[in-house]
């Protein structure tokens, strides 16, 4: 797979030639914002954070593209929280301002937000959590829970709310990517008092949901899922994808700018997936065709929602995602041009100011 790898130790950003071509104001003008346009601040263009992917990160040295008042260092702490007896890894930074909780997508972890945490922490308290079963959080075997599925959006929604209660100790904004968007919506419905607003980045459409499968294909899909879950085929399949080359190929499918798929990014995604229990969680979730859909959750949410979409996402087509802009709860649908499925990592210079402006509109003023 052809890809230009960046040798730095940070998760990559869009190259400067790309940043210069696309001004932030263009990406949010009337051709890209559908329905309720609002004032949006211009971005900070920042370097990615250099980090040991398991421990901590700091903002890289300031260059000429950075604002002069950007601090040269932001400490990001890595902590463990005990939830229902399980160890949960999270990262946090910032000491003042509204609280943000960043929620990753399928197969990812809180390291996927390393280019967002230090920037957002300049004016907010930022937390990024590894959902149970992912990253460096514990991975209980789903078979330990009998016939009742454990890895569900209800489980993760409860985890997110308890995290806000126990760790954040405050109301919070949920900033979510892919399946993390369903986690955020589910949590907001379960405990409306906790969530102040949700920003959905390329939320998963759940195209393999049972209601979206053609009736004639359901028996075949179910049989294949049972084969993966209950035979050695599943572990063989996982072993074939849990390699650096396979992970890189998968990431290059969902990143529009494949030069952003560095060896460091591959490592950050792959290594937690090699820990004990990861294969069982992986197989359990790809066989999970039940649970809620975004279109079922959005009407139930009471807090403001902003939807943003990388328009080059091959997995969650923007043509289908636009429909989410029609829900009353959704204040805007924002197109992120020339960006794939993981905008927070591929285009942080677009996502970070979008998060900041959304939070600023809905944060409770302090006097």
Automatic annotation (TrEMBL):
Organism: Daucus carota subsp. sativus (Carrot)
InterPro entries linked: AB_hydrolase_1, AB_hydrolase_fold
GO molecular function: hydrolase activity
A Pfam family that the UniProt record links to this protein: Abhydrolase_6
Location of the AB hydrolase-1 domain: 100-352
Protein name: AB hydrolase-1 domain-containing protein
């Amino acid at each position: 797979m052809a890809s230009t790898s960046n040798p730095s130790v940070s998760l990559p950003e869009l190259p400067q030639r790309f940043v210069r071509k696309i001004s932030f104001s263009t990406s949010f003008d009337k051709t890209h914002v559908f329905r309720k346009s609002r004032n949006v601040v211009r971005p900070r263009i920042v370097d990615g954070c250099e980090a040991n992917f398991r421990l901590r990160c700091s903002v890289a040295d300031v260059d000429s593209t950075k604002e002069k008042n950007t601090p040269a260092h932001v400490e990001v702490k890595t902590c463990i929280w005990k939830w229902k007896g399980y160890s949960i890894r999270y990262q946090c930074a910032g000491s003042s301002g509204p609280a943000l909780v960043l929620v990753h997508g399928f197969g990812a972890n809180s390291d996927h937000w390393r280019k967002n945490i230090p920037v957002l922490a300049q004016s907010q308290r930022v937390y990024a959590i590894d959902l149970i079963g992912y990253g460096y959080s514990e991975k209980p075997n789903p078979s330990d829970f009998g016939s009742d599925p454990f890895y569900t959006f209800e489980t993760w929604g409860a985890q997110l709310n308890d995290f806000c209660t126990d760790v954040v100790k405050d109301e919070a904004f949920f900033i979510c990517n892919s399946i993390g968007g369903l986690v955020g919506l589910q949590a907001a419905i379960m405990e409306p008092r906790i969530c102040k607003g949700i920003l959905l980045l390329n939320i998963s459409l759940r195209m393999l949901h049972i209601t979206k499968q053609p009736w004639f294909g359901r028996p075949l899909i179910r049989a294949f899922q049972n084969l993966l879950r209950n035979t050695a085929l599943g572990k063989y399949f996982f072993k074939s994808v849990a390699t650096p080359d396979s992970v890189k190929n998968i990431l290059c499918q969902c990143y529009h700018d494949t030069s952003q798929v560095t060896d460091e990014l591959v490592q950050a995604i792959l290594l937690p997936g090699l820990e004990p229990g990861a294969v069982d969680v992986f197989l359990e979730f790809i066989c999970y065709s039940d649970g809620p859909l975004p279109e079922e959750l959005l009407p139930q949410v009471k807090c403001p929602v902003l939807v943003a979409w990388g328009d080059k996402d091959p997995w969650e087509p923007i043509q289908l995602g636009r429909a989410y802009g029609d829900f009353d709860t959704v204040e805007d649908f924002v197109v992120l041009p020339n960006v794939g499925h993981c905008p927070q990592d591929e285009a942080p210079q677009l996502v970070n100011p979008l998060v900041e402006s959304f939070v600023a509109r809905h944060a409770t003023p302090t006097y």
